[in-house]
Amino acid sequence: MKDEIRRVGEEALRELKELDGLEALQELKVKVLGKKGTFTALLRQMGGLSPEERPIMGQIVNEVRSRLEQAWEERGVELDRMALEKRLATERIDITLPGLRVPRGHIHPLTQIVEEIEDIFLGMGFQIAEGPEIETDYYNFEALNLPKDHPAREMQDSFYITEEILLRTHTSPVQIRTMEKLCPALPVKIIAPGTVYRNDDDATHSPMFHQVEGLVVDRGIRLSDLKGILLNFSRQMFGESREIRLRPSFFPFTEPSAEVDISCMLCGGAGCRLCKGTGWIEVLGSGMVHPKVIEMGGYNPKELTGFAFGMGVERIAMLKYGIEDMRLLFDNDLRFLQQF
């Protein structure tokens, strides 16, 4: 039995040297040292030995087992290293090859326009104000001189959540909220960029779009101040050669009210397809703040005056970049967006 144990050990060591993989190493270990392995089977026969032979056989078994376990560990480390070298050789990266460029994202054209508008007005001393997109009927209409029975409400097909809560149809509610917050401090000089919602959807309208509202309230504010601010804005946004004109219009929250046109960027005012032969392009609405709106904001309309204006960011972007269909700005087509 002593010779058989040594023979099994020597045979196992010989097979270890011939192995070429970790999986084969594990299979051989089970074959020799497993519950049904050849070495384990020999150990079970020790029960039939005499008391004098058992210590001798036990010493031999421990020696052989120790050699096998050490050999298994060493061979395992060696096979693991060989497997790693083989994998590194097959997965070798040629560092001299040029890398793959990951496409870089960039700011959406509408965001670019909003940031440009903000920079222009910040440079003229305005501050940026914000308000909620889910608005009450009071701030969206009533406080802006649009009572519940006012016919001008029909001009804006609104998204109502309840009878008194809706998605705001313009950024004008920020005017009232800001005046309430600042009153009685002066001057009030803000722009309010933000998202608004109306039930429109065609080439020049979207159910969700963006506006920038402007408001100035102080002592001695005149219509000429409004014109000067808007002329400066138009020249910074569309070019130093731009001129503007104010056409009489109607808005419930301003009196007098005016539509603002700029001289055509394409023809310089001579008349072309873009300006429909008139030489002028409409860009925004404006006017002197209605006394009732000033009063709703907490100020005294007998002592103060102000002006307000509002522009659609999409319209500014379409004019600046020559875009004919507003829906392109919301399609998320990378071929279109990468042009900006």
TrEMBL record:
Keywords: Aminoacyl-tRNA synthetase, ATP-binding, Cytoplasm, Ligase, Magnesium, Metal-binding, Nucleotide-binding, Protein biosynthesis. Its cofactor is Mg(2+). It is found in: Cytoplasm. Residues 111-319 form the Aminoacyl-transfer RNA synthetases class-II family profile domain. GO terms for cellular component: cytoplasm. It catalyses: tRNA(Phe) + L-phenylalanine + ATP = L-phenylalanyl-tRNA(Phe) + AMP + diphosphate + H(+). It holds the Pfam family tRNA-synt_2d. Its EC number is 6.1.1.20. It is an enzyme of class 6 (ligase). Binds 2 magnesium ions per tetramer. Tetramer of two alpha and two beta subunits. Belongs to the class-II aminoacyl-tRNA synthetase family. Phe-tRNA synthetase alpha subunit type 1 subfamily. HAMAP family: Phe_tRNA_synth_alpha1. This is Phenylalanine--tRNA ligase alpha subunit. The lineage of its organism: Bacteria, Bacillati, Bacillota, Clostridia, Eubacteriales. The gene is pheS.
